[in-house]
Design a protein that fits this description.
Layout: E1 2-5, E2 18-22, E3 27-32, E4 35-42, E5 49-54, E6 57-62, E7 65-69, E8 80-83
Antiparallel strand pairs: 1-2, 1-8, 2-3, 3-4, 5-6, 6-7
Length: 102
């Protein structure tokens, strides 16, 4: 699970404020403030995901297409990248954290 957080107090997924979870069954899920928000289709190897703060909204993207917009107002202070890995055989690849445009 990975996403944006307003701090990092522990390594639990509930500490990630705006998160994408890629389940072992290929389901694409969103969690916010530790709460399940829904399943938004599936994913495949090579898909690219973004959790983005844009114009005061948190956007979730798959392959540069928005699939969910948060209904929670983001904090006014800076967000950080946060990751929670459940299994020793899991990981993230080619992760980028940007302030602005790539």
């Amino acid at each position: 699970m990975f996403g944006l957080a307003n701090g990092n107090t522990d390594n639990n997924y509930t500490d990630i404020d705006y998160a994408i979870y890629l389940s072992s069954g290929s389901s694409l899920q969103v969690y916010e403030l530790g709460v399940f928000r829904g399943t938004f289709g599936t994913y495949s190897a090579g898909d690219e995901f973004v959790v983005e703060l844009s114009n005061g909204q948190i956007l979730y993207k798959k392959n540069n297409v928005i699939f969910y917009t948060s209904t929670i107002n983001p904090p006014t202070n800076n967000l950080i990248l946060d990751v929670s890995i459940y299994d020793i055989n899991e990981g993230v690849d080619n992760i980028q954290f940007c302030n602005g445009f790539l």
